[in-house]
């Protein structure tokens, strides 16, 4: 005979609070599902509370909070039945938390000791900024030459345009 493993869970689910009798029937159904195969409820709370915002066009809901020890199969059945009830509009939301210390401790260990990622280049890429092979002084001299050439060209074009305008004036006077 196979031994069943029990895990500790905390389950919170919200039921539509418009019909209290229906809320209690849903609660009984969920408790029955979660306690089959010797599952045990250790703590149970329920209350009605306003939502911070509308959920499925509802302003408030009947909250049920259970702390229990049950099998993962019972949790799977609970999730399946909950999704059916949610499609019918009887329940609003749920939250299932596994409270097993081993899983919590391993998660804390992983969180506390993060490994630094190792980055390796898979290919050799040329740098994005290319450096000039020529020294700065040579570049400055070359820039000065091109600036001088540009100013000479500008002066020539201005002289040519002024000569053309004087020729036009002379032809108009004749």
UniProtKB/TrEMBL annotation:
<dbReference type="GO" id="GO:0005737">
    <property type="term" value="C:cytoplasm"/>
</dbReference>
<dbReference type="Pfam" id="PF01250">
    <property type="entry name" value="Ribosomal_S6"/>
</dbReference>
<keyword id="KW-0699">rRNA-binding</keyword>
<comment type="similarity">
    <text>Belongs to the bacterial ribosomal protein bS6 family.</text>
</comment>
<dbReference type="GO" id="GO:0070181">
    <property type="term" value="F:small ribosomal subunit rRNA binding"/>
</dbReference>
<dbReference type="GO" id="GO:0005840">
    <property type="term" value="C:ribosome"/>
</dbReference>
<keyword id="KW-0694">RNA-binding</keyword>
<comment type="function">
    <text>Binds together with bS18 to 16S ribosomal RNA.</text>
</comment>
<dbReference type="GO" id="GO:0006412">
    <property type="term" value="P:translation"/>
</dbReference>
<keyword id="KW-0689">Ribosomal protein</keyword>
<dbReference type="InterPro" id="IPR035980">
    <property type="entry name" value="Ribosomal_bS6_sf"/>
</dbReference>
<dbReference type="InterPro" id="IPR000529">
    <property type="entry name" value="Ribosomal_bS6"/>
</dbReference>
<feature type="region of interest" description="Disordered">
    <location>
        <begin position="109"/>
        <end position="174"/>
    </location>
</feature>
<keyword id="KW-0687">Ribonucleoprotein</keyword>
<dbReference type="GO" id="GO:1990904">
    <property type="term" value="C:ribonucleoprotein complex"/>
</dbReference>
<protein>
    <recommendedName>
        <fullName>Small ribosomal subunit protein bS6</fullName>
    </recommendedName>
</protein>
<dbReference type="InterPro" id="IPR014717">
    <property type="entry name" value="Transl_elong_EF1B/ribsomal_bS6"/>
</dbReference>
<dbReference type="GO" id="GO:0003735">
    <property type="term" value="F:structural constituent of ribosome"/>
</dbReference>
<dbReference type="InterPro" id="IPR020814">
    <property type="entry name" value="Ribosomal_S6_plastid/chlpt"/>
</dbReference>
């Amino acid at each position: 005979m196979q031994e069943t493993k029990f895990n500790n869970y905390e389950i919170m689910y919200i039921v539509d609070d418009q019909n209290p009798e229906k809320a209690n029937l849903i609660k009984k159904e969920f408790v029955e599902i979660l306690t089959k195969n010797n599952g045990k409820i250790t703590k149970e709370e329920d209350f009605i509370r306003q939502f911070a915002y509308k959920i499925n066009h509802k302003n408030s809901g009947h909250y049920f909070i259970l702390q229990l020890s049950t099998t993962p199969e019972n949790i799977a059945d609970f999730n399946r039945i909950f999704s059916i009830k949610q499609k019918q509009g009887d329940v609003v939301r749920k939250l299932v938390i596994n409270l097993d210390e081993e899983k919590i401790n391993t998660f804390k260990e992983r969180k506390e000791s993060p490994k630094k990622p190792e980055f390796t280049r898979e290919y050799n890429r040329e740098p994005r900024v290319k450096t000039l092979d020529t020294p700065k002084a040579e570049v400055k001299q070359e820039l000065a030459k091109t600036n001088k050439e540009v100013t000479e060209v500008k002066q020539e074009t201005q002289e040519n345009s002024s000569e053309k305008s004087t020729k036009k004036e002379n032809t108009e006077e004749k």
